[in-house]
Structure prediction request, 724 residues.
Amino acid sequence: MRSTAAREAILDATSRLFHSQGYDRLTIEGIAKEAGVGKQTIYRWWSSRGALIADCLLDGRLIPVDFDMPDTGDLLGDVETWLRSVLAVLEAPQGQALLRSLVAAAADDADVGVHLGESLGVEKYLSERLRGGIRDGQLPADAPVAQIGRAILGAIIVESLGREAREPGEVIDLVRYLFAR
Amino acid sequence: MRSTAAREAILDATSRLFHSQGYDRLTIEGIAKEAGVGKQTIYRWWSSRGALIADCLLDGRLIPVDFDMPDTGDLLGDVETWLRSVLAVLEAPQGQALLRSLVAAAADDADVGVHLGESLGVEKYLSERLRGGIRDGQLPADAPVAQIGRAILGAIIVESLGREAREPGEVIDLVRYLFAR
Amino acid sequence: MRSTAAREAILDATSRLFHSQGYDRLTIEGIAKEAGVGKQTIYRWWSSRGALIADCLLDGRLIPVDFDMPDTGDLLGDVETWLRSVLAVLEAPQGQALLRSLVAAAADDADVGVHLGESLGVEKYLSERLRGGIRDGQLPADAPVAQIGRAILGAIIVESLGREAREPGEVIDLVRYLFAR
Amino acid sequence: MRSTAAREAILDATSRLFHSQGYDRLTIEGIAKEAGVGKQTIYRWWSSRGALIADCLLDGRLIPVDFDMPDTGDLLGDVETWLRSVLAVLEAPQGQALLRSLVAAAADDADVGVHLGESLGVEKYLSERLRGGIRDGQLPADAPVAQIGRAILGAIIVESLGREAREPGEVIDLVRYLFAR
DNA sequence: CCTTAAACGAGACGGTACGTCAGGTCTTCTT
DNA sequence: AAGAAGACCTGACGTACCGTCTCGTTTAAGG
Prediction:
C-alpha cells in the first residue's frame, strides 16, 4: 500500500538536492526534510543512498536529456551528435560537478555504477550504433564495440576528474581518431 | 618545526586504512588512532581528507607499482606492457575496490583528481611513449595522444564502475584496435 | 516524545559523577557514557552542564537530605537542628568538596545559583522558622530574616572555601550569638 | 634567573583577562598570548591556573581596592565604612560577575580559597576591628569574631550566587542587626 | 460504511565522526 | 640558562547524520 505521492516527493527531493549540493553533501535527513517525509519512509523503500540515486538515474531525473541517436548512415556524424548532447550536459553550469558527483556515487554504490553508462546512452544508443557501423562496413568486424563506448565515456570522465580546463573539441578529436581509417 | 615521524606515521596509516577499508570508511579519527597521533596534527598540515590521499598518491603509497615503461621500438607491445602492470593492480585482491576508492576520492577532491592519472603513469609514461610512436611513424602525426591515454584509463575505470566481471583481455582489444592501422 | 528512562539515567549519572569527581571534572561525554546515552540526548533537553546540575539539585539528587525543620517553640534549638543536618552533609566523606563543587557550579551557572540555597532549605525552612521567631517575640520585629539565613549559610561556605580545618562548633557559636539577646 | 618582566606581564595579563572574561573563560594559552610569553614560562613558575590567580589576588591585582579601616571608636560606623567599600566593588560594572568568578576560583583551587577572604580585608581589618569592639565593650567578650566576619562576607556571596537583584541596603541591615544590642 | 492494519510525518534514541579548543609536555631556536 | 614559539598527544566540546525505534495520524481495503 505504498504512497506514490511520497515516492514522487522523495525522488524529486533527491534529484533536486543532488544537483544543488552534490553527492557528498546529500543526506537522508536532508532529503526527508526537503520531501516533507519521514526518514523511515525512505528507509522502508530504499536500502541505501545509492539505491535512491540509482532510482533517480533510471527515471532520468539526474541527467534529464534524451540520448536517442539517429542513424543517418554517417557513423562519425551520428556519434558526434550523441557526443555533443553529452558534452552539452557538462557545459551547463555545474555540469562537470554533476558528472563527478555521479562518478562518486557510482564508485560508492554498485547500483549506481551499473546504471551510469546506461543512462548516458552508452549501451542503448552508442554501442548499438557502432554495431550498425560494423554491419554496413564503416567499422571492421572485430571492432570492440563495448570497449570503444567505454573509452569515449571514460575519456570524458578522466578529463573531468583531472579538473582540466575543458577544450570542448578534444574528445571529438578522439572520436575522429577512433573512426578514421 | 614539523615532525617527520608524525608525517610518516600519518601517511602510512592513511594508506594502510585506505587499502583495508576503502575511501568511504576512511576517517580522520581512524587515521589519527592508527597513526598514534592527535587529530590536530593532521588538521595542522592537511586541509582535508583528500589532501592527505593526494599526498599518499604522490608518495606512491596507494599504488605501489612502478609504471615505468620501456621503449623497445614496438609501440603496441610497450603499451601492452604498461597496461598489464595496471591490470595487475586490479587483479590483486580488492584491486577493483581500490580503483573505485581512488575514483571516489578523485571525484570528491580536486587534489586527488589531478594526481590520479599521473600516479598510474598515464602522462609520464603512456603519453610519452605515444609521442614516440608519432615520431617513429607508428602513429599518425595528428593522433590525439593525451586523449588516447585518457581513453584507455577511462575504459578501465568505466568497466570497474559498472561492476562487470572483468574479462582480462577486453581492454587489450581496445588497445589493439586503437593502434591497428 | 521524551524518554523518561533516558532522563532518569542522565540525572542519575550526573549526580553519581558529581559526587565522585566533583564539578570541574564533570563532562558531558562522561555523563553520556555513564548513562549509556548519546550526547545529543543530553544537549536536546539541557542547555548546559549547569542546567543539568540545577535539575539534579531540584530533584534532591545532589544533597539527598531532608531539611524539614520542626517548630518546637524553641527558636535556637530548632535552628540548631537544621544546622546540624546541614553540617552532617559536610562531615560525610568528601562533604566539604561536595559543597565547594556546588558553589563552583552556582558561580558558573545562574540556574544552579538560584536553587542552591533553596535545596539546603534556607528559604523554605530556615527563613520560615525565623519569621515564626518574630511572631512569637523571640526575634525583634525588624530582624532581617532573609539576610540572617544567608549569613549562616554564607559563613559555612566561606569557611569551606578557606579550607580551614573545621571546628564543628564554630558556626553554632555564630547562631547562638545571632539569637542571644 | 627568573625574568621579572615576564612575571609582571603574566600577572598583568591574568588579571586583565580575569576581569574581562571571567574565571571559566580564562585559559593558560590566552594568558600566554596576551602576555607575549611562552606557555612553558607560565608552567615553570606556577603549578596551576589557581596558583596564578592566588598570586594576582595577593598582589591586589584582582580587587584593586584598599580595605584599610579606620578606628573612629564607632564600631558600627567603622564596619559600615568597610562594608561600603566592599559593596562598591560589586556595584561597579561586572562587579557581581567578578565576585562570582573569585568564588568559582576559590572553590576550584585551595590557594585562591585561603586568600579570598584575606584580600577583601576580612581577617586583616574587619576581624581586627571587631576584636577592638570587644576590648572597648561594644561587643560581648564571647562574640565569635571570625564567624561574624565570615557571616557578613558569606551573606554577600550567597546573595550574589542567588543572582538576586541586589538591594544595596540589605547587607547593612544584617550588620546593624549583628551589632544592635 | 466502517473497521483495521499498513504506511505515514515526526522526531527521539544510541552512536560515530566531524572540526575546534585548550591542557600540559616536549623540542628548537633566540636572546 | 631562560624565554618565545609552537608542535605534539590527549581529551572534551557542541554539531551533523546515521539507521532504528516509538509515537499518534492518515488512508485505503476488505468485511
Notes: Chains C and A do not touch (no CB pair under 8 Å). The two ends of chain C are 58 Å apart (CA to CA). The CA atoms of residues 9 and 33 of chain C lie 10 Å apart.
